[in-house]
């Protein structure tokens, strides 16, 4: 009951429903599960791993990488993802004031957490550059995890738009599709290797 009230004001959105996830020919996860678990999993991964990873980078610097087109693109994508997440938060506040209705807490908390996570990801990208990291396995896993979780929601939103078009929120659907596209771009960029760092042993050995 707690999560149901968290996901919907009238508790109409259950966290898990076997009839829609298992006992059906077209399985799908509930909106509550998508707005909580699928959003929180990549966020928790990065927030839990970031302190350890940043300490490792602090003590294992490999030089310094100048701002390149690749690094600028990674930073721009992370910043745009941050803006998209916060636009959903601001829309929820606007919707609450405009319609004078109560908003489910998940519509405020999940995009806020996701926005802060994107800001952390952008910071890590820049810190990696300052520490001479040419490619990051930590960020690659984060973008891959975020994209996989978003893919489940992407499919669900398409099914909902085709089956129940009257329930579609144009703003949230549009921002999610843009968010999904930028996640795909971020994953591709994270697969590319940046230039060699300055003042590193690798440059001297070459």
From TrEMBL:
<keyword id="KW-0472">Membrane</keyword>
<dbReference type="InterPro" id="IPR056227">
    <property type="entry name" value="TMD0_ABC"/>
</dbReference>
<feature type="transmembrane region" description="Helical">
    <location>
        <begin position="137"/>
        <end position="156"/>
    </location>
</feature>
<feature type="transmembrane region" description="Helical">
    <location>
        <begin position="37"/>
        <end position="56"/>
    </location>
</feature>
<keyword id="KW-0812">Transmembrane</keyword>
<feature type="transmembrane region" description="Helical">
    <location>
        <begin position="76"/>
        <end position="94"/>
    </location>
</feature>
<dbReference type="Pfam" id="PF24357">
    <property type="entry name" value="TMD0_ABC"/>
</dbReference>
<feature type="transmembrane region" description="Helical">
    <location>
        <begin position="176"/>
        <end position="199"/>
    </location>
</feature>
<feature type="domain" description="ABC transporter TMD0">
    <location>
        <begin position="25"/>
        <end position="161"/>
    </location>
</feature>
<feature type="transmembrane region" description="Helical">
    <location>
        <begin position="106"/>
        <end position="125"/>
    </location>
</feature>
<keyword id="KW-1133">Transmembrane helix</keyword>
<protein>
    <submittedName>
        <fullName>Multidrug resistance-associated protein 1</fullName>
    </submittedName>
</protein>
